[in-house]
Amino acid sequence: MVATLLAMLPVRASVTPPVDLAAGIRDLKRELNAVILAHYYQEGDIQDVADFIGDSLQLARQAAQTSADVIVFCGVHFMAESAKILSPHKQVLLPDLAAGCSLSESAPAEAFAAFVAAHPGHQVVTYVNSSAAVKALSDWCCTSSNAVAVVEAIPRDVPIIFAPDKYLGDWVARKTGRDLVLWDGSCEVHELFSASAIADLKAAHPGCTVLVHPECPHAVRLLADVVGSTKGLLDAVRRGDPLGTYLVVTEPGIIHQMRKVAPEATFLMAPAAVRGQEGACTSCNTCPHMRRNTLEKLWWSLRNRAPEIRLAPELIARARLPIERMLSLG
Ligand code: 13P
Ligand code: SF4
User: Fold this and answer.
1) By C-alpha distance, which of 115, 117, 114 is closest to 182?
2) CATH of the structural domain 103-187+322-328, one choice from 3.40.50.2300, 3.30.565.10, 3.40.30.10, 3.40.50.10800
3) Which atom of ligand 1 is nearest to the CA of 230?
4) I need a surface site. Which of 24, 187, 236, 329 has the fewest CB within 10 A?
5) What is the pLDDT of residues 51-96, one digit of tens each?
């Protein structure tokens, strides 16, 4: 009986991804009127198939203004959430829903709400690397591109909580001369860069330009020629010596675009300390969350229109305010 019933079910050809994944992705993208947004930390193959590549701020802007019906976000969960918050009526896909972020996870919403309640009268500035629920508790959002400008937009006599990245917060405090109340969060990738190994590399390559993301600790930032967001560091290469040597102290996915703007320059990946001891490990500097996305998962996500980011409308409405306030700064 069971066998008879099974025989009556329609036979489905099993689907396999095409050999030329990039071509398959382009076809599906056209079919769905989808746009692919990719962060600079994605693997090179994903960057090459994307419609827009950028830092968190650039991608948030693209998400806010796209006319596509579907946004496929090749980045991490908080970035795709921001896209959904800014384009609530569009379908937002993330090729791997488990692509999280240690910084975002370092600030659980409940504990953060208690922290905010313990600091009455403070304006709350939250780095975009945070959950929608934490954004909903904030007055302002910021990215590493505009964190200084956001803090400077707040009158000097108003106290400020800055969360969740204590290192970015420390950098902003030093740049603005403001005394910020910092949440104790950090990025597991940038926190691991080894100041002593970078100093050694710098000495071995006299004249090299050291490019550092502000999520790094102060001891690492002290070695920098340029501190900036991923876009800021890419711009420094664009403006810099086309034959120069660059020591890149951030996730090495960005080097894919750096090589495009300066094909004859030399790029050195900064070493990270091995957890718990000083050493030179050049694979600890890749973000395990960003790298969960692959070209094949991107194809599947277009093919299945999943996994999808879903947020409650009330959460979207509340979390949108600090992001829009940030974007209105220009
Ligand atoms: P950017 O905004 O500089 O691209 O940084 C995002 C990020 O996650 C850095 O770790
Ligand atoms: Fe989060 Fe760090 Fe990865 Fe950026 S590099 S997504 S801050 S874990």
Assistant:
1) 115
2) 3.40.50.10800
3) 3
4) 329
5) 999 999 899 899 999 999 999 999 999 999 999 999 999 999 999 9
Top-level class of domain 190-281: alpha beta
pLDDT grade for 194, boundaries at 50, 70 and 90: confident
Q: What is the pTM of this model?
A: 0.92
C-alpha 130 to ligand 2 mean position (Å): 11
The binding-site residues of ligand 2, defined as CB within 6 angstroms of any ligand atom, are 76, 101-103, 129, 187-190, 215, 251, 287, 289-290
Q: How far is the CA of 2 from the centre of ligand 1 (A)?
A: 54
Q: Residue 254: nearest ligand to its CA?
A: 1
- How far, in Å, CA of 271 to CA of 126, rounded? 29
Give the chain's mean pLDDT: 93
* Nearest CA owner, ligand 1 atom 8: 129
Indicate where the chain has its CATH 3.40.50.10800 domain(s): 4-99+290-311, 103-187+322-328, 190-281
- Say yes or no: CB of residue 129 within 6 Å of ligand 1: yes
Q: What are the φ and ψ backbone dihedral angles of 152, each rounded to 5 degrees?
A: -70, -20
The pLDDT-based confidence of 2 (bands split at 50, 70, 90) is very low
Tell me how far apart the alpha carbons of residues 183 and 224 are, in angstroms, rounded to a whole number.
24
- Coil, strand or helix at 285: coil
Pocket perturbation via mutation, ligand 2, pick of 130, 187, 215, 292 by most ligand atoms within 8 A of CB: 187
Which atom, in ligand 1's list, is nearest to the CA of 54?
4
